[in-house]
From TrEMBL:
Residues 261-300 form the SUI1 domain. The keyword Coiled coil applies. It holds the Pfam family SUI1. InterPro entries: PheRS_DBD3, SUI1, SUI1_dom_sf. Keywords: Coiled coil. The lineage of its organism: Eukaryota, Viridiplantae, Streptophyta, Embryophyta, Tracheophyta. This is SUI1 domain-containing protein. Residues 305-359 form a coiled coil. GO terms for molecular function: translation initiation factor activity. The keyword Transferase does not apply.
Length: 363
């Protein structure tokens, strides 16, 4: 089968309605016909349109059963016409890989009686499965509804073509000259040369100064527009700094930003708990804060210091305890506040003591 047959057929006919039927009439391979049609279409000798049609193709097992018979026929033929045969002996006579299928289909069609002994219920049967497979193989059946038959089939698509003459149609393909050679010099006026596409770009050269890793980096680089859109999305998704006391600050009445003090309190039994005191103003003097905390959480005292002398003595005692104790010291005999024993706190106590001395005339 050559392209001459297709071009010659179109010389006397307007078109080829179906390339599959054309291949069946002229006995070529349809795949070869499709290759020739694509080649002629590229040079615009013909114009072709693709047509899709669903087809059924037999599997290897389907081809075997179409030639030798269905599995249930083999199972039925292995059973003697008179009497019965044991299931084990019958399995030895048949292919063990399809024995289950054979026995199931034969029993389903009520050809045999299954048990410890297997016997025939009927004497003559028809192999309709083989007949159906042969019809499918010959292309006479296109739709199958039985699930048992579908196990032997492959559903696929075959491409056919509607072929007609093209703008450059000729009964025979012309050979175009690609280049001007010595043999073509004497008749170059009569030759037809292949057209060149001067707008086509050449093959890109793999050359340059970039290292292979730098080439990868360049291919992954963001253009300015993409980078700007990416950063804008990032800014909208990333939240601002989280302030756990933002709600409390919002409820403030305008007296200034509230300060939050966290103090660990050690009880007599050794257990510690974290206490948070909110809303302390900056002008709240340190000595009063310390005294009120000791009163509420530690010493459980019932009276307030009234005179400056008592305040001074209390601050002296607290200063000595801060100098002598460390954060790891545990005083089980007294209730103490686990404060931050830093130089800043001690300096504040010194300042308060000096101010009290000035008030009492001892400066």
């Amino acid at each position: 089968m050559s392209e001459v047959a297709i071009l010659g057929f179109l010389k006397n006919n307007e078109s080829i309605p179906d390339s599959g039927e054309f291949a069946a009439e002229h006995n070529p391979d349809h795949e070869e016909v499709k290759i020739i049609i694509k080649s002629l279409q590229g040079f615009r000798y013909i114009e072709a349109k693709e047509l899709k049609r669903e087809t059924l193709v037999l599997t290897d097992d389907g081809k075997k059963f179409a030639a030798e018979g269905s599995p249930e026929i083999h199972f039925f033929s292995a059973i003697p016409e008179e009497g019965s045969i044991s299931k084990d002996d019958l399995e030895k006579k048949l292919d063990p890989s399809v024995f289950k299928i054979e026995s199931t289909q034969a029993a389903k069609k009520r050809w045999v009686a299954m048990g410890k002994q297997v016997s025939r219920k009927v004497q003559h049967v028809e192999d309709k499965v083989k007949e159906s497979l042969l019809q499918i193989q010959q292309g006479l059946v296109y739709i199958v509804f039985k699930a048992y038959l579908l196990s032997f089939l492959i559903r696929g698509w075959t491409r056919y073509s509607y072929v007609e003459k093209g703008p450059n149609y000729a009964p025979k393909r012309k050979i175009f000259a690609i280049d001007l050679t010595r043999e073509n010099l004497h008749n170059w006026k009569e030759l037809e040369f292949k057209e060149y596409n001067f707008n086509a770009k050449g093959q890109p050269l793999d050359a340059g100064h970039l290292h292979p890793l730098l080439k990868v980096s360049a291919s992954l680089f963001f253009c300015p527009s993409d980078q700007q859109s990416f950063m804008s999305e990032l800014d909208s998704q990333v939240p601002t700094a989280f302030d756990p006391f933002d709600d409390a600050n919002a409820e403030d009445s305008g007296a200034g930003t509230k300060e939050y003090v966290h103090i660990r309190v050690q009880q007599r039994n050794g257990r510690k708990s974290l206490t948070t005191v909110q809303g302390l103003k900056k002008e709240y003097i340190y000595s009063k804060i310390l005294k009120d905390f000791k009163k509420e959480f530690c010493c459980n005292i019932n009276k307030m210091y009234d005179t400056s002398e008592e305040k001074l003595n209390a601050l002296h005692k607290e200063l000595e305890s801060l100098k002598s104790e460390t954060p790891s010291t545990k005083r089980r005999d007294l209730n103490i506040v686990d404060m931050n024993y830093s130089k800043e706190n001690i300096d504040k106590l010194h300042t308060n003591i000096a101010s009290l001395k000035q008030q009492m005339g001892r400066a």
